Amino acid sequence: MRRSRQGTIIGGGQGAVPLTAGADIDSGLSAQSAQAPPAPASAPAPAPALALAPALSRRHSFVGALGEVLITLGVLVALYLVYQLWWTNIVADRQVARNSVALLHKLAAPPPADAAPIPTDAIPTGQSFAFLYLPALGADWRALIMQGVDRDTVLNTGAVGHYTGPGTSFPWDPSGNFALAGHRDGHGMIFRDLDQLKVGDKVYVQTQYGWYVYQLDRESPSVPIDDIGVIAPIPAGSGYTTTGHYITLTTCTPIYVDTSRMVWWGHLVDTTHGSQVPPGVTPAQ
Question: 134, 197, 252, 268: which one is catalytic?
Fold first, then answer.
């Protein structure tokens, strides 16, 4: 069946397309196309990938925080090393220079005309009373000796300390062991090169009562840090078997670790009275 352009139906059967006035076949087809279903949307991202993002973020945050902590610790360690191995030496050098002045003046003063000074062991802790010379370490090597081995008031000032425990003595005593200690690293590191000494080297001690000259006999590269027998009147490990006039030099070892002690022992070989200087040493001025 077919009607004119103003009719309502073209063709027949269930596939007939109704038209309105003024419409044509192309318009009907366009309407059908407009009603076609939309294209399927793209598939969403897999859920596991989205779930990993927060975990990765937390991991990166932890690694970043750990890195900052390690950097901070590294800076603090570096600053401590600069302080311990450089700045403390500067401070100690200044302190020992100041502390040496008074003793130099005392040693340079002429003795009383009526009588020589009487030796005494009544020296308070922290007081300077002698100079130590080790020409084997350099013609100008000199150390200030102070009473006691307290770190803050004696050793950290750059001085050599005299042990005050039982059994130790002074050079002018009838017999005994004149035992000394000094730092090997930091705080002036006065005994840094103690390992460079050799058997037979001379040790000079200058006091207001005169000079005392010792000769080194034996070294122990390492003894337990708490072995007080090495500073006994007859020091353990020295090889001495009878009382005498001995000197003991102690310092920390290994250097920068300080878990043990290095020790040198020597015996008295000469003395001079007053300001008479023995051969082989140049006194401080």
Answer: 252
Tens digits of residue pLDDT in 113-136: 556 678 889 999 999 999 999 999
Distances (CA, A) of 121 to 124, 173, 178, 263: 9, 8, 12, 24
114 noted as active-site residue: no
Measured at the CA of 153, the angle between CA 226 and CA 211, to 5 degrees, comes to 85
Asked if 215 and 257 count as a contact pair (C-beta separation under 8 A), the reply is: no
Q: How far is CA 78 from the centre of its chain?
A: 8
Which residues are bridge partners to 246 per DSSP? Answer: 177, 267
pLDDT (tens digit, 9 = 90+) per residue, 207-250? 999 999 999 999 999 999 999 999 999 999 999 999 999 999 99
Contact 185, 195 (CB under 8 A): no
Question: pTM above the 0.85 mark?
Answer: no
In the block, tokens 């309105």 appear at 20
190 contacts 154 by C-beta, under 8 angstroms: no
User: In one letter, which amino acid is 208?
Assistant: Q
pLDDT of residue 177: 97
Q: Which residues pair with 133 in a beta bridge?
A: 142, 204
Domain spans in the chain, listed from the N-terminal domain onward: 99-111+125-273
- For residues 56 and 66, give the distance between their C-alpha atoms in angstroms, rounded to a whole number: 15
Mean pLDDT, residues 136-154 taken together: 95
Question: With 90 as the cut, is the pLDDT of residue 64 above it?
Answer: no
Q: How far apart are CA 251 and CA 189, in angstroms?
A: 10
Residue with tokens 């003046």: 105
Neighbours of 39 (CB within 10 A): 6
Answer whether CATH 2.40.30.100 is correct for domain 99-111+125-273. Answer: no
Q: Are 251 and 230 in contact (CB under 8 A)?
A: no
The set of residues, in sequence order, having a beta carbon less than 8 Å from that of 79 and lying 6+ positions away, is: none
